[in-house]
Batch of 2 targets.
Target 1
Amino acid sequence: MASLFAKPITELKGVGKKRAELYQKLGAPTVGALLRLYPRAYEDWSSPCTVLQAPHDTACAVRATVERVSAPVFTRSGVMLIHVQTADAEGTPLELVFFNNSYIQNLLSSGTCYIFYGKVTINQGKQQMASPIFAKEGQCPGLRPIYPQTKGLPSRTIAAAVQEALQLLPDAMQDPIPQEIRQRYSLCELRYALETIHQPENQESMEVARARLAFEELLVLQLGLLTMKSRTREKSAFVVQKSYLEEFWKLLPFTPTGAQRHAAEEAVQDMQSGWPMNRLIQGDVGSGKTAVAAACCHTVIRSGMQAVLMAPTDILAHQHFASLSAMLQPAGISVGLLTGSLKPKEKAAVKADIADGTLQLLVGTHALLTPDVVFQNLGLVITDEQHRFGVNQRTALAEKSKGTHVLVMSATPIPRTLALMIYGDLDISVIDELPPGRQEIQTFCIDSSKRMRALRFVKKHVHAGRQAYIICPAIDAGNDKASVTQYAQNLQRALPDCRIGALHGRMKPKEKDEIMEHFSGGKIDILVSTTVVEVGVDVPNAVDMLIENAEQYGLSQLHQLRGRVGRGSCQSYCILISDAQNEEARARMQVMCETADGFAIAERDLKLRGPGDFFGSRQHGLPELKIADLNDDFSVLQNAQTVAKEMLAADPPLEAPDHRGLRAEVRLLFQNLGET
């Protein structure tokens, strides 16, 4: 099988340079990769129905006998039509219509029974199928695979290439999964799985093949992630000799929750172990992750090392700089800020201070990754909203010092299935407790006819001295989505006594900072913005979050936006405005109104949208799953992780003869991801 991954796709018949580029788009540049391009769905030909049983407007298979093939007729526009009269076993007629296909007269024979696959519709009182695909009875497949497609490369062309590729499978094919593991989990052999997933006889055989391939995919991923984790264990780390947590907690003007204390203690224990910490702190909006990060920074710095925190945006970096300074400067700890928006002289001064140890904690954005940012004695690296950074970026920051402890934080609650997969290289702490006094945000969903009523509600709070966010999905006018620029202008005219501000991603960093400073300082009453305020922005006086075109966002993103309010002592509100009628969008709105639990919301989001869309964009540095389904395969993932741990405990380099196939797959997977 490994040799087929070295065989270019152009070695298949009919695949030249141009078509090979199309296969490359689908992630199949080699014959081996093509065999791993699994069908995304199947047409079910196994149980043909009668004409009257056929569901209208849903593709299905119908068994019918051809009675007459009419001569071609032409429409005024020159389209050739051929009508074919058929009837099923009960005598119910079904008319077939083919467009611009003169060969149909030769392909269909009167008196012969066929299986026709297409959508049955009613046209002028007749049951009709337009341009169905067909096969003679007894010669059709049980399930016909439908492949992911790109323009110029239809599914049927891919299917023909796959059939040729299957013929190239070696006679003596070593299975990468050891026989003992296959027997333990009732998994079929690889050859059967590959042949059957592409040409299944029925649903049952397809499921057997899919189960095997899903297990293998998750096993290879877990082996790779656990190997990454074990490699960090091989490096010597700076060892924290003493915990300074109690000293830090006394600096705070509030009492930390039990969950905060527990998460900080786990992190400090990691740093005392003699191995590099590699831990995720996961917590819902407002759970107090920043205080835990500050506690870790305090312990490391009191132990004689430096710390750095990287945030994905300038706004969030400024927010962290302000809050960490407030918590740590009373302890005499110096905190600096480095972002792309600083002037060259300011950047140079910060870099000089971090290099000579004057600065003990540096907060910044991607600007921290440049080679000229050099630390004197870096002991702790923290990344916030870590799914917005690739694995390479996280690694690049950690590699600025040998044996560095790594802490990553995420305010995006992640279902346990995704957490197991995505954070397989990290230990996980969960802050599942909100600070006392936090009021639950009341959430409502309305349609656009009630918009003015909602704006009057917001205006009432502004007149009482409070502030509000309004979120729009677009920046400029020109489509049917609410746009920040137009909305802010219209709102200023509608509410002339309110101070309106606008914020979006195309603004220069200095402009964004100025707007946020004005909003934080109470100089702006209502901030109209895109989702740039989704994470990290903390304005306790803001009590209203109004989201236009709310159906445009996933549940987790809506939850993040809602978390911008409810950060003070006043009752806060989230108003979702949506005219969407589709079932999935309405289900999302209902979930938001029913619960404020971020982890429950994340589970629902995963079920509604699937893992591919969970983050909006795949910046977390992990591969897209080709066949495993995290909605259904959680137990498979757990089994794969168990096997991966067993294998690596017995044979860390995977050099045993039974493990070499898996080692090759792990290398191939992580090479494709740009990982070493």
Note: Residues 203-234 form the longest helix (32 residues).
Target 2
Amino acid sequence: MKHILLAFLMMSQFAVAQHKKQVDTTSTQELAEVFITANRTATLRKETPVAISKLNAKTINETKATAVYEVVNKTPGVLMVNLGNEQHMMAIRQPMTTNAYYLYLEDGLPIRPMGIFNHNALLEINQFNLQSIEVVKGPVSSLYGPEAVGGAVNFISLKPSLNPEFKFGIQADNFGFRRIQAAGGATIGKIGFLIAGISSLQTHSWMKNSDYNKDNLNARIDYNITPSTRLISNTMYGKYYSQMSGTVNEDSFYNRTYNSTSDFTYRKSDALRTRLTLEHDWKDNSASFLTAYFRDNKLGQNPTYRIKWSATSNPTTATGEINSNNFKSYGLLGQHTQKIDLLNAKLVAGALYDYSPVTYWAYRVDLKAILNSEATTPTVDHYEILAERPDIRITDYTADIYNKAAYAQFNFNPIDQVVVTLGGRYDNMKVAYNNAIDLSSGTKIYDKATFKAGMNYNPLETAGFYGNYSQGFAPPGITSIFTPKSGTGGTTGVAAEFYYNLKPATFENYEVGGWLNLLENKLNLNYAFYYMEGKNELLSVKLEDNTTDYRSAGETRHKGVEFGANYTPSKQFNIRLGGTYAQHTFIDFLVSNKPSDPVQNLNGKEMPAAPRWSGNSEISYYPNWLPKFRAAIEWQHVGSYYQNQINTVKYAGYDLFNARVGYQWKAFEFYGNIMNLTDKLYAYNVSRTNTSGAAPTYTAAAPRTFVFGIQYHFSLKK
């Protein structure tokens, strides 16, 4: 912490010195930009004591992404890992992980209820319905609740336009991807409406057995009852189906054959979310809202990551799993924001109630493993289904989840140029369950009060600084609880054992940061130093047969610096730089006390899939000699990281370059993206078990890809 405080003071002194050099200064775009997510209300950056970034409509439009990760990765300190066909992992102040340490929001409302986290939830997002994306880094549990530990990502959707508008686009690449997308809306009298839809199809890609299709439709209706009272309806429906090609072995990766080991694995999803919000603005600039919402999700899988195979015990056989996870949610969220003249204060207070019944079942699939005859060690070439075994249930439970929460946050100005923020929240998650495998039933309760305190100091119009302390809380997902422990149940002859004793993970985060504006507002800088300690963090231990064992014990430490810069030397150029340096370490993390286990205590070891360096930067060009033309080169860097938990083998990481061009002609925009410009061989993720001589598995990334598209935008402005 001494180094962090010293750096903070140095940056403060540097900002003051720069200010003295400037003759004329104005409020910067960075300080004046309005954020919603950090404080649950519209708030200026200079009043927000957290690390927060905003991706605006211009950035989203110019990216022309085929998947959300292409946009989100432009945020300093964020690495959204592509797993193919819009499936993903995330790394925000955490290693690349599928654990429930991130909160994904749509217009401020969580996409999933607490306890039913899905790391692939963002595949339900409609990219053609986005106005902006806000990313808060670090714990925001005191406002948004559990799982908001590494951070929160809020997707803010389009609003009805005042005048009739319509946009339509088609998009395709050289590997069989095609998308049609359209959106339109208007305001007629007191009623505004907007409809946005996409339909994506992938066939015959570079990776075998990786076809997918996705259809999403969003509809919004705003009824302006009076100038101060609004009724807003928002509905999303999406269908998704994808083959799961999974990982490839080392030979396939380096030979670029990209043969999937399974042609039968899949993931399918049906999602419905609808909400009705009543908003009212009071005469004293205060505001209230009440939201009633409903979710209906059905997720079915025959996942590659559930295939169990061992190179040492009967390597010609394996088992898989077919599962189904369905839930519904009925909820209410109410919030009031009160402005107070004394000390220019603002109070935000709210409460939530959510009832989510869930059913989950999984049964075994018997597989034959066809080995690679040319490999020196046993390696699977592909799997074949021998029999589906619905008679052998692996998991089978129902549960009613009751989430209750109350939160409050208070901002005030004790003196000029200083804003103090205090916040707290209490969460209570009750799970009433019936486990058909061990014929048990009961109730589990996870509750926690979380707190945060922060301060902003804005000595200049061109500089601001902040510091905060925040707490994070994440109960184990109920799927983890009711997954049988490896080696129990089924035909093993051992009674199934479950993870009833998994503990909630808790985190404490200390952070300082700030922003500067130099060179007459042409250069914007922002930075954040953080130190976060975790206890009982849920750890997935990858076993020899590719199964996962869960542990919640010991401590972890996460520390790093995030930095971003935006330089606009002229109207023709914009240079963006962003990145992070981080260390994620196990502290006294005892995972086993069995002498035969390959790993005992991970104390002092780096967490796997945790690159120290990562970042995304871009140079954009808007030539004066060709108005309405744009071109950009983007650089994505991911540093080296350990493949396993015992830190014996590293993956070197990669440097990736993407190029984008576009030209606006009247109401038409023509564009082209080249992803992986240099045709680099790389993998999004590489992992291996802790056993000696374990073979790595590669989540292969696409070779050079050409994306083409045309977009039409019609607007009838008065």
Note: The chain is about 5% helix and 55% strand.
